[in-house]
Predict the structure.
Amino acid sequence: MKTALTNWNNYPRKEAVVEAPLFEADLLRVIDRGTSFITRGNGRCYGDASLYSNVVSSLKLDRILEFDIHTGIIRCQAGTLLSEVIDFSLQRGWFLPVTPGTKFITVGGAVASDVHGKNHHKDGSFSNHIISMRILTPQGAIISCSPDVNSEYFWFTCGGMGLTGIILDVSFKLKKVESGYIVNEQIKAANLDEILDLFDQYSAYTYSVAWIDCLGRGNSFGRSILMVGEHATAKDVLSHNLYPRPARNLSVPFNFPSFVLNGYSVKAFNAVYYAKNYKRNMRGLISYDKFFYPLDSILNWNRIYGSKGFVQYQFVIPRKNGKVGISTVLKRISEKGWGSFLAVLKLFGNQEGPISFNTEGYTLALDIPINSGLFKFLDELDNLVHEFGGRIYLTKDARMKPEMFYGSYPNANTFAGFLAKIDPDKKLVSYLAKRLELK
């Protein structure tokens, strides 16, 4: 029986036969069938990376298998949600080493996307903290791999969008913390030049991220709010419980009409959001949920963009071209008037992964509702990003052309060759893989 599936951005929507195995032995039978499929976690990526006509869900393979409270090394099945890792480890004094903007993704998804967070400039991406993982290959073998053992398999799996095999379980090292709070500082920047300077001034902080007004013009072009933070010590939270209560969740009950989000409403939101920081510098203590996952408290927030869905466009531009590159792309977005009220700017550090999105530079992510002229406009932005030596995040991609992928990822051809070698029968296939001519 087929089910209509879509990822978090509600585009594209595809029919699929979905099965959810309970045991590893079930996965072996899936491989033996010889039918092409893709594995899927919680569907919180954007685009078509975990979509195909046959889908194998990992969500029932969600057990924490081992944990060493002294070293913080945890081993869990690929279907375990990051939220479940936090619930298990935080009150034992450990937290995720790297986390994206939602905790509702699976550990397997974190590997396949090689997710990054607000601390990439300090701690790298998720792959930097993996000790080892077990993978069921397209040939039906179970292998262990790490940065030093079966290293080619390891590195092409990190950021490989689930195309190298089925991730069974992952061992990774958590970060030692004393509380569930963050000491947070917010600094207003009047324009793009100032926010880029602030990233350098506050580079000693473990966590940094900026909200940016991508519709600002004139003297306000690129006005932003930089948010930096450190894990609070026990001494910092003497007047609080060490671990905050779970956040109360609101919910968006239905898809918003398409006219709600337009240039005027986004401009109005951005003006209010920028003005809420009534002082240039504001400092306080907030829960980890509010710092890392502000949108997770709004269930089904993706419905704000209406039934047609939206595209999250995320790109990175190397640091040497960062200022002029980000400025050029932002000006084009501002001129078009298709800006987002959820525009996020981050600074990346060095990155080793051969197929990972992350590279030293500036990354900007913004949400744009689907409309008739959007994809043509994004093709134009792709050309600008490529001109400045940048690339697009596969996990957020729903429409990039193969020429852009092969022209912007230095190891794209090597990756395609590796996939052809390990999966000649094309058992692991997604719509993204087809669209980018990877399989």
Notes: The mean pLDDT is 93. The longest helix spans residues 322-336. The two ends are 26 Å apart (CA to CA). The first strand starts at residue 2 and ends at 5.
